[in-house]
Amino acid sequence: VRSQLPSICSTARAAWIQHSHYSTSTPAATPSKTEEHRSVFDISTKVLAESDIAKHDDKLFITHPLFPHPTFSQEDCEKVMFEHREPKTFGDRMACKGIAIVRGTFDFVTGYKKPRNEAEEAHGFKGTRYEMTESKWLTRVIFLESIAGVPGAVASFVRHLHSLRLLKRDKAWIETLLDEAFNERMHLLTFIKLGKPSWFTRTIIYVGQGVFCNLFFLFYLANPKYCHRFVGYLEEEAVSTYTHLIYELEHNKLPKFKDIKIPTIAVQYWPELHEDSSFLDLILRIRADEAKHREVNHTLANLDQRKDRNPFVLQIPEETRPQPENGLKVTKGTGWEREDLTL
Amino acid sequence: VRSQLPSICSTARAAWIQHSHYSTSTPAATPSKTEEHRSVFDISTKVLAESDIAKHDDKLFITHPLFPHPTFSQEDCEKVMFEHREPKTFGDRMACKGIAIVRGTFDFVTGYKKPRNEAEEAHGFKGTRYEMTESKWLTRVIFLESIAGVPGAVASFVRHLHSLRLLKRDKAWIETLLDEAFNERMHLLTFIKLGKPSWFTRTIIYVGQGVFCNLFFLFYLANPKYCHRFVGYLEEEAVSTYTHLIYELEHNKLPKFKDIKIPTIAVQYWPELHEDSSFLDLILRIRADEAKHREVNHTLANLDQRKDRNPFVLQIPEETRPQPENGLKVTKGTGWEREDLTL
Ligand SMILES: [Fe+2]
Ligand SMILES: [Fe+2]
Ligand SMILES: [Fe+2]
Ligand SMILES: [Fe+2]
Fold first, then answer.
1. B304 and B88 in contact (C-beta within 8 Å)?
2. What share of chain A has pLDDT > 70, as a percent?
3. A196 phi and psi, to 5 degrees?
4. Residue B131 to residue B124: CA distance in whole angstroms
5. % chain B with pLDDT above 70
6. Which long-range contacts (CB under 8 A, 24 or more apart) does B204-209 make?
7. CA distance A326 to A315
8. How confident is the model at residue B121 (pLDDT cuts 50, 70, 90)?
9. Which of A177, A265, B118, B238 has the fewest CB atoms within 10 Å, counting from its CB?
10. Lowest mean pLDDT among A97-106, A315-324, B17-26
């Protein structure tokens, strides 16, 4: 089998061996002893011990969030689930296929499998390279969130410039897109307070952004509609990943996350979280955020990019049909169809 | 003299002749008759007649401003004046020189002279190619605002990506930079409701953004400090230009602007403006905005770009020294020095 794999996979495998070694340490033990032996290709994230979380926490000059987070009830957060929008056009299929390829490659290289049935959920690929440890989960979410913060930033930047150079109003898309970018950055800044990624992971993140940001920028200039569709499908996968993480947390498969203290930035950002909220409470909210991005981006992809207003930011009092909103009370995971919206 | 001018100036002069012709029409007359004779190089902006302003005004789906504008008292707005920061380092001098060259060229090509004494202020270069009409003022401010919206957007975008790829907090710079970009876009969207730029102006704006945005992006990646200094000097010039416009408005030199109705977007954005506010009230606020950008950018240029927090967004209750804030009550036109700030 080995000879069939391209070199990047061998590297990943090497990292994985290193990683298995590390993950066999008991939850309470600090992994600092192994650190000096780490390979440069090590992708494992050092999960911070309780005392280290407090030490690395940052309470200095924390401002009110630029985009205040809407209130999500615990019940609504728990109801969020994977939903899939059936591709309808050729562009939809390309966007969906694109995500499938990117995700498949990423999952294989990093050693992740989405459980497809209850048996796989229960054993969690224990003892194989697909077993998910706390360290692997942190590496995964840190990498994904650092990528996830790009599309909203690119889209809002391009639309801002578009408005300036065509002397045209934007109709409030920028607002939601910036909020999305900010929200993803808050996810990232929360996770990095819980673990310390390896230098290899950091390098991959640095290079990955360079590639993804430039590509997404060019695609967004050329065809913003299918970029939003692409992000819609990306967010479907994010919901699926966090649903898996929530399952593992609820079934006590990740003891290091059991009593972890969530960082100050998370307490300040999500209105329902407080100092004693659990890691599970945090992930429930992050999954709900991803579900909302999924809804927003599938909806924006259904709109006329040049003319239609963003229906998420302004509620029309006279409107009798249900319309999009920012919270979790009214949602439509697969996006709102253009004909159902007052634009 | 003509033979000494490069070709772009001849073009500007041709436009100017066209333009003088247009500006001789009486304020009340609509200039539509001349429109079919306009040269493709015409840079004059058609000042909308009262009835047209109402017609072109846009009240549909106006959302609350993404960055609510702070309250500026009339008195504070009137006190704003031109202030110049003496360049201290080599980079400062380059930034200052850069602005001087760009502005000198732009002024010469478009036929603008900053009055340097009371006599020049009083006669306003009447009868020369430097005479400013309502149409020329609109062309000028629309072009300048469409450029002015770029730096804040680029800087916030670069810092957002920087935070994502280095897994580091931003310390609230993004917030003020996005606010600046939004504020400049509101200036632009306000002005385009008062006049209709020619196709030539629109083309220059389109191409100008392409050049400026890419250059500023590269410079910001390479040396953000001197980019903020450059913007600081740019905003000094903006204050100077709007001070000139305010002088002309106060001395009734621009009759078409006398009883002009300000657009809905301005009423919604600036908290002190209402339906019957004058064009002068509007320009007083825009000048105050530019003065604030000048202060912010000169201050940011004084900071350590990687480590220092943005001191404009968070007031520290225990602090006894005066510190920056968002309003006009405490200002420092030439920027706050790093040693005077609690960072
Ligand atoms: Fe996220
Ligand atoms: Fe997301
Ligand atoms: Fe401006
Ligand atoms: Fe400005």
1. no
2. 89
3. -115, 105
4. 6
5. 89
6. B204/B43, B204/B143, B205/A165, B205/A167, B205/B142, B205/B143, B205/B146, B206/A165, B206/A166, B208/B143, B208/B146, B208/B147, B209/A161, B209/A164, B209/A165, B209/B146, B209/B147, B209/B150
7. 10
8. confident
9. B118
10. B17-26
Inter-residue contact B114 to B240 (CB < 8 Å) = yes
This prediction has a pTM of 0.89
- DSSP codes of every residue in A23-81: HTS-TTS-THHHHTT--TT----EEPPHHHHHHH---TTPPPPSSPPPP--HHHHHH--
What pLDDT is stored for residue A62 in this prediction? 82
**How many other β-carbons are positioned within 10 Å of the β-carbon of residue A233?**
25
- Which residue type does A172 have? A
Query: Cβ contact (<8 Å) for B164 and A209?
Result: yes
CB A270 within 8 A of CB A285: yes
Q: How far is CA A163 from CA A82, A167, A304, B203, B205, in A?
A: 35, 6, 15, 14, 11
As a whole number of Å, the end-to-end CA separation of chain B is 55
Count Cβ atoms within 10 A of the Cβ of residue B178 and give its class: 0-12 exposed, 13-18 middle, 19 or more buried: buried
Contact B261, B53 (CB under 8 A): yes
* All residues at 6 or more sequence positions from A269 whose CB lies less than 8 Å from its CB, including other chains: A65, A69, A186, A190
Estimate the crossing angle of helix B134-166 against helix B90-110, to 10 degrees.
150
Nearest Cα neighbor of A257 from A132, A163, A122 is A132
| Of A184, A290, A201, residue with least CA distance to A246 | A290
Taking a C-beta distance cutoff of 8 angstroms, is the pair A115, A82 a contact?
A: no
**Angle subtended at Cα A306 by Cα A303 and Cα A311, rounded to the nearest 5 degrees:** 45
Instruction: Please report the DSSP string for B8-28 in residue order.
Output: HHHHHHHHHHHHHHHHTS-TT
Query: How long, in residues, is chain B?
Result: 343
- Burial class from Cβ neighbours inside 10 Å (0-12, 13-18, 19+) for residue B275 reads exposed
Q: Do A189 and B66 touch (CB under 8 A)?
A: no
HSE at residue A319, side-chain half, CA atoms within 13 A, is 15
Confidence grade of residue B32 (pLDDT, cut at 50, 70, 90): very low
Q: Which residues of A243-263 are buried (b: 16+ CB within 10 A; e: fewer)?
A: bbbbebbeeebbebbeebbbb
Which residues of chain B are at the A interface, by a Cβ-Cβ cutoff of 8 Å?
58, 61, 63, 66, 142, 146, 149-150, 153-154, 157, 160-161, 163-167, 169, 171-172, 174-175, 178, 181, 185, 188-189, 192, 197, 202, 205-206, 209-210, 213, 265, 309, 313-314
Phi, psi of A320 (to 5 degrees): -100, -25
B199 within 8 A of B185, measured Cβ to Cβ: no
Query: Residue B98 pLDDT > 60, yes or no?
Result: yes
Q: Which residues of A touch B160 (CB under 8 A)?
A: 149, 153, 181, 185
Give the per-residue pLDDT at A34.
46
Tokens of A49: 């011990």
ipTM: 0.89
Mean pLDDT (chain B) is 88
Taking CB atoms and an 8 Å limit, are B178 and A178 in contact across chains?
yes
Tokens of B206: 């389109």
Determine the distance in angstroms separating the CA of A165 from the nearest CA of chain B, rounded to an integer: 5
> Which phi and psi angles does A5 have, rounded to 5°?
-80, 140
Q: How far apart are CA B162 and CA A213, in angstroms?
A: 12
Question: E-assigned strands of B133-283?
Answer: 195-196
Rounded distance from Cα B295 to ligand 4 centre (Å): 10
